[in-house]
Amino acid sequence: MAMYLLKKDEDRTPVYDAAAKWRERCLIHDGSIIWEDESIWTHSNLKRLQEIFVHNPDESGSSFEEKLKKQLHGEPDYMYKLFVELVFVYYLFPYKRSIRFETKLNKLQEIASWKNISINQKAAIFKGLENGLGSTGTFYNTNKFDEISYIILIALHLKEKKIDERQEILSDQKKIKDFAVKTRALIGKRVQMQHVLLHLVMPDKFERIASYGHKDRIVRAFEYITENAKLNDTDEKLLMIREHFEKSYVDENVDFYDTKEIAEKWAPLEKKIQPAPTGTGKQDDSNSINSSFDKFGDGLVFENEEVLIEQVTTAIQNGKHIILTGPPGTGKSKLAYKINELYGKRPIAVTASSNWSTYETIGGYRPDRNGILNFESGIFLKCFKDEKTNESLNTWLIIDEINRADIDKAFGSLFSVLAGDEITLPFESKSGKLITIKPETETGNLETNDHTFIVPKDWRIIGTMNTVDKSSLYEMSYAFMRRFAFIPVGIPKEITSMLMEQYLESWKITDYPYVEILTEIWRLINKYRKIGPAIIQDIARHTIDNEDFTSSIILYVLPQFEGLPIQRIKEFAQDIDSKTEAVIVMEQLNDFINDFFEDGLF
């Protein structure tokens, strides 16, 4: 059986219980899993959703929730309830490192709130969302429209059949697979929901694998088991492979991910999540992730945090350094530290400067107290060697505002090392030997002398770059950029009161009385200049005990508008006064604008 019931004291039984109730009450019958006495999953309701959602895609740049709110506008309560339950089903499979339990509940509550529908999140059914079953990946998280459309079409086409036919389809391995494949053809994309729903409705026949690629790799790895069987279907082959191994693992639940000996056969290069190292600074494995890490925290809230985590881990796994890009105040610097925490690192952190040369970054001769010149390591080389013991280190480097440096001048010969070459510097160590920098070899060349610096294979630079000023600073060469993954850390597409409350909670600002005002102020700020939530935290702390929004706008917001035409800045001030409920003293705002911008400060 492919059920995944218990792992590290995390019981998955509620997931399967919820899936079984959905199968019986909603797919076979017309009921509900949250509002048990109501008929919600009816043919007419699903047909209506097909019209207003599946056949009415919103291709604007808005968030999924913002689009959905427009698509459901004017519909009766039961249509909102149906969509809440659709999203519930969508969230059943992803485990908590893919999508957090709190995120799942918040998304359901948000949809219900549009129609003032109450949800009892203490109900037993919601335990099914807590732990999840497996990883879903970026596409599942960012392509909600197609994944949820698939659920709608599966349910709709089942409802076009009689109850006994529905039961027959949902109880027969070949028929449900054929039904699922034909429905996916209507979507036109390789939605992971096909695999997810097959496992949820028939977990004894279909694996808890959402990835097409993983299924294919497993089948290829164990082809010797199925080669004599006349099977063409991937899922049938997986079942045969499972049954083969179950004969050997009589007392153990066979799992293609968690049964070590099996996983190593089909995924030998994939690193399992291990406890993080203690942060000694010694060389370790960049694939080793802190197993207790499930969100960034520390005042960081991101619209698609799960996607962001996956982008970071995938880039590092693929050998890339990282540059976090985005407007000011989005938490890029904090995020750089959290990435190091994720990998158990204690980084060196610096802010780039236009004055940087290889003297600051690689090193050079510096006089000691007696006037004797000795080689002293620069910023980069300090990451690779303990100057007292000469032990090799793997200290990651955070470079804030990396594009403020002339990259080619500052990185110099380090480019060659990152490309896999060994270089010798024109400097001698105290032992009289020339300084050498070279990449780590497959055997892990840990040389404990004073003149050899080893660049670990898994050493990483985490840089940050404000997109607002990237055009006015140094450009990056192609040779530099191809060694980095540029990961956007943006501003939420839809700034809502619910999102604002999440930020306030993360900042440990409790009982803030002006949430709606703060929300509208941030919306207006971003109408004129994209600025992240850090500035909103400043405003919230300034106004929590009073209502002096005028001073907070002067202190924290207006100086960020440097470079905008003064008329645009005055329009912003007028908007703050007329479009929010904040008490604004316009005379003070206008006086500051005239003094600060018009009379010569900028």
Tell me about this structure.
The protein is an alpha/beta fold and 602 residues long. The chain folds into 4 domains: 6-209, no CATH class; 211-269, no CATH class; 271-489, Rossmann fold (3-Layer(aba) Sandwich), CATH 3.40.50.300; 497-598, no CATH class. It contains 26 helices and 12 strands. The strands form 4 sheets. It has a 5-stranded parallel sheet with strand order 4-7-11-3-12, covered by helices on one side. The chain has a 3-stranded mixed sheet with strand order 8-9-10. A two-stranded antiparallel sheet has the order 1-2. α4 (77-92) crosses α7, α8 packs across α9 and α23 runs antiparallel to α24. The chain is flat and about 95 Å long.
Notable traits:
single chain; 602 residues; alpha/beta; 4 domains; five-stranded parallel sheet; three-stranded mixed sheet; 26 helices; 12 strands; 9% strand
Summarize the structure.
Residues 318-490 form the AAA+ ATPase domain. InterPro entries: AAA+_ATPase (IPR003593), ATPase_dyneun-rel_AAA (IPR011704), Methyl-DNA_Rec/Restrict_Enz (IPR052934), P-loop_NTPase (IPR027417). By secondary structure, the protein is an alpha/beta fold.
Work out the number of β strands.
12
The spatial strand order of the largest sheet comes to 4-7-11-3-12
The whole-angstrom Rg is: 28 Å
Major sheet details: 5 strands, parallel
Q: Fraction of residues in helices?
A: 40-55%
Shape: flat
CATH architecture of the largest domain: 3-Layer(aba) Sandwich
Number of helices: 26
What is the level 1 CATH name of the largest domain? Alpha Beta
Distance separating the two termini: 70 Å
CATH superfamily of the largest domain, by name, is P-loop containing nucleotide triphosphate hydrolases
Low-confidence stretches: 269-287
From the 3D structure, determine the CATH topology of the largest domain: Rossmann fold
| Structural category | alpha/beta
Oligomer: single chain
Number of domains: 4
Q: Average pLDDT across residues?
A: 87
Strand content of the residues, in percent? 5-15%
